[in-house]
Write a structure and sequence with these properties.
The complex is a heterodimer of chains A (about 350) and B (about 290).
Chain A lengths: L1 H25 L8 E10 L3 E2 L10 E5 L2 E5 L5 E6 L10 E5 L5 E6 L4 E6 L2 E5 L2 E6 L4 E5 L5 E6 L4 E6 L3 E6 L4 E5 L4 E5 L6 E9 L5 E8 L2 E9 L2 E10 L9 E3 L5 E6 L2 E6 L5 E4 L5 E7 L4 E8 L2 E8 L3 E8 L5 E5 L2 E5 L3 E9 L1
Antiparallel strand pairs in A: 1-31, 2-5, 3-4, 4-5, 6-7, 7-8, 9-10, 10-11, 11-12, 13-14, 14-15, 15-16, 17-18, 18-19, 19-20, 21-22, 22-23, 23-24, 25-26, 26-27, 27-28, 29-30, 30-31
Chain B lengths: L1 H21 L12 E3 L12 E3 L5 E3 L4 E8 L13 E6 L4 E6 L12 E2 L4 E4 L10 E6 L4 E3 L1 H4 L10 E9 L2 E4 L9 E12 L5 E2 L3 E6 L2 E7 L2 E5 L2 E4 L5 E2 H4 L6 E8 L2 E10 L5 E10 L1
Antiparallel strand pairs in B: 1-2, 2-9, 3-8, 4-5, 4-7, 5-6, 6-9, 9-10, 10-17, 11-12, 11-13, 13-14, 13-20, 15-16, 15-21, 17-18, 18-19, 21-22
Classes of the chains: A mainly beta (about 350), B mainly beta (about 290).
């Protein structure tokens, strides 16, 4: 009896050893290089023009609360200004607003006036200048000179909005998606339906304009991806979600034209436009932005939850590489390649992600 | 052609009347005495709802329904500014939606799902400059904004609208009516500056405008509905006028064009409010 028990125990132990060996030698994966964040510079921000920046230097836009301005990747500050409601700003231009007036002034990054133009609520999206009009039911697009290119009225208030280089999509609070091309023409109008109550909570357009992803409906909520097919847009994939959001939901189509990120109750969902990927990054966020560093194949998410924010590095589709909590005063975060620029009202810093 | 327009107009009125009956339980979300601008008032464009003036208090649900969307803050995730910093949407039975904008930030009852008529949705803001709370009634089946006056409890009003000015416009040249100056023959637009004083004392839109030439009705708009199609903003259920062709950049109303041939033309403008008060103004125009 004893001998039989001992033999079984030996065999079991051997089995475990073999399994471990098989796991290590057959299913081995190379360890990814360790990712670390290297600080490059930090500057304190004072209001005013420094005059230190050469005219030909490429400037990056900065905005935090009521402050805005431009700086260089090397940490030189071109100017910092302050306005009660801040200023809509892009890398090439910004808009100076006067309280209670519909006349706005468009200036270039050197603070030279380009033009004055009528706009109720100007803003930038994907580097393009727009203005919200009509009680939140319309949008006007302007060119780089501040000339009106087109105006488009949606049938109802917008609950979601996204712009690519050549496509703008508005999602209305009554549950419709409408796409507008670079000439202001409607290219599609689509009601995802399939839920008890129709509403569009979030929409994302790929930079190319080939893909549109949206979170829609209540009971049940859906993620719907539309793809361009000739001159029309058709449903490429969709899934029902467990969430019951009744507020704006961040949805992004990444620049690789393949991955869709969207807010979920349990993290950030990662979905492929063709439905072939359906996974979750364990990063809880009320809202987030993403930047893709093609050279390293790494994506960086800036996740915000309440007053807390963090940077999360991951390899697509959902391999978490690391996360860095940011100070509570970090109101400004932007990426350029593997460089992150972080700032608050009074400071600005850069650090680079490097693989050791 | 005129019969078709008449039938379409009658149908539009009938549909809105049915809607008004089915939504008759609606209550004003803020004290109606604080209405500053009504449907159709010029607020950098055609106002599709009702805007309230400065008042301390609560914004309440107009009827039983379900809260489907709450957004607060400066903008939506894609950068689009949130009007007034807060947007709330309640879906009601009979395919109606009510939309509330400009509530005090941080006051939105976003935890609510089902709401009863009169439930507090948030606090009003004091409209120091710009806008106060705005309220919209939206027919989700027809995808049209409806003039809230049609759906809400009546507001007592004994003041007729006013016609501030009327001018004939030909190729950008304006001739103000009421002067003895003759005009030459041609195709003219009539530019009207007519308003109805709101309960809060601001100059808002009337409910109906009629234009008669020599006693014959040549233009009529009823401020009942507004919608959009193909990116264009359209106004008035019976006529479907393009907003930009009706409302000028300074907020006047454009009628026409009317072909004025030589002789004397009697031009009559009748402005009415929702309570039925009327103002009629007649101009005698000498055409050479």
């Amino acid at each position: 009896m004893h001998d039989g028990k001992g033999r079984r125990a030996t065999l079991a132990a051997l089995g475990v050893v073999v399994a471990i060996l098989v796991y290590f030698f057959v299913f081995a994966e190379p360890l990814s290089a360790e990712l670390s964040a290297v600080p490059r510079w930090r500057v304190d921000l004072d209001i005013g023009v420094t005059g230190k920046v050469a005219a030909e230097t490429g400037l990056l836009a900065y905005a935090a609360g009521d402050r805005y301005g431009y700086f260089t990747p090397d940490g030189e500050v071109a100017f910092i200004a302050e306005a009660p409601v801040g200023a809509p700003i892009s890398d090439s231009s910004y808009v100076a607003l006067s309280a209670g007036k519909t006349e706005a002034v468009l200036l270039n990054s050197r603070s030279e006036t380009i033009t004055s133009f009528r706009a109720s609520a100007p803003f930038y999206a994907s580097g393009r200048l727009f203005s919200a009009e009509g009680d939140g039911t319309a949008v006007t697009s302007y060119d780089e000179q501040g000339d009106k290119v087109w105006s488009y009225s949606f049938p109802c208030q917008l609950g979601a909005f996204s712009a690519g280089d050549r496509l703008v999509v508005g999602g209305t609070v009554d549950g419709w998606l409408e796409g507008v091309d670079a000439e202001g023409r409607r290219v599609f109008s689509f009601a995802p339906s399939g839920s008890r109550l129709p509403v569009v909570l979030g929409v994302g357009v790929s930079r190319s304009g080939d893909w549109v992803a949206a979170v829609t409906g209540i009971d049940k909520q859906r993620l719907v991806v539309l793809g361009r097919g000739g001159s029309d847009y058709r449903v490429a994939s969709h899934t029902y979600l467990e969430s019951d959001f009744r507020e704006p939901v961040r949805v992004l189509v990444m620049d690789d034209d393949h991955h869709v990120l969207y807010r979920r109750s349990d993290g950030i969902g990662v979905w492929a436009v063709d439905g072939s990927i359906d996974t979750v990054l364990p990063v809880k966020a009320d809202t987030f932005d993403v930047a893709l560093d093609d050279s390293k194949g790494i994506a960086y998410i800036v996740a915000r939850r309440g007053r807390k924010s963090e940077i999360v590095a991951f390899r697509l589709p959902a391999t978490l590489l690391g996360r860095i909590p940011l100070p509570d005063s970090s109101e400004f975060v932007r990426f350029s390649g593997s460089s992150a620029y972080i700032g608050g009202r009074t400071w600005l810093a850069r650090f680079d992600f490097v693989e050791d | 052609m005129s019969k078709t327009i008449l039938r379409a107009g009658t149908l539009a009125f009938a549909a809105i009347a049915v809607l008004a009956l089915s939504a008759s339980a609606f209550e004003w979300p803020v004290d109606a005495g604080k209405i500053r601008y009504g449907f159709g008032s010029f607020r950098s464009g055609f106002l599709r709802g009702t805007e309230f003036g400065a008042t301390e208090g609560f914004v309440r649900a107009a009827d039983d329904g379900e809260l489907t969307f709450v957004a607060t803050g400066s903008s939506l995730p894609g950068g689009y500014p949130i009007p007034g910093g807060a947007l709330m949407v309640v879906s009601h039975a009979s395919d109606m939606m009510t939309i509330y904008e400009g509530l005090q930030r941080g006051s939105s009852s976003s935890y609510l799902k089902n709401v009863r008529a009169g439930d507090i949705l948030g606090r009003t803001i004091t409209a120091t400059n710009g806008r106060g709370v705005s309220f919209y009634a939206f027919d989700a089946r027809k995808r049209r904004f409806i003039n809230p006056l049609i759906l809400m409890p009546r507001i007592s009003d004994d003041k007729p609208p006013a016609i501030r000015s009327a001018a004939l416009s030909l190729e950008g040249q304006e001739t103000v009516l009421g002067q003895t100056q003759p005009v030459r023959q041609g195709l003219y637009y009539l530019l009207l500056d007519a308003f109805d004083t709101s309960p809060a004392g601001a100059a808002g839109a009337p409910f109906e405008l009629r234009v008669l030439l020599d006693g014959s009705e040549r233009g009529r708009v009823v401020y009942d509905a507004a919608w959009a199609d193909g990116g264009q903003s359209l106004l008035f259920g019976a006529t479907g006028l393009v907003e930009d062709s009706f409302q000028t950049i300074d907020g006047r109303m454009r009628f026409g064009p009317f072909n004025l041939s030589s002789g004397r033309v009697i031009l009559t403008v009748i402005a009415s409010d929702y309570a039925g008060n009327k103002r009629e103004q007649t101009y005698s125009v000498s055409v050479q």
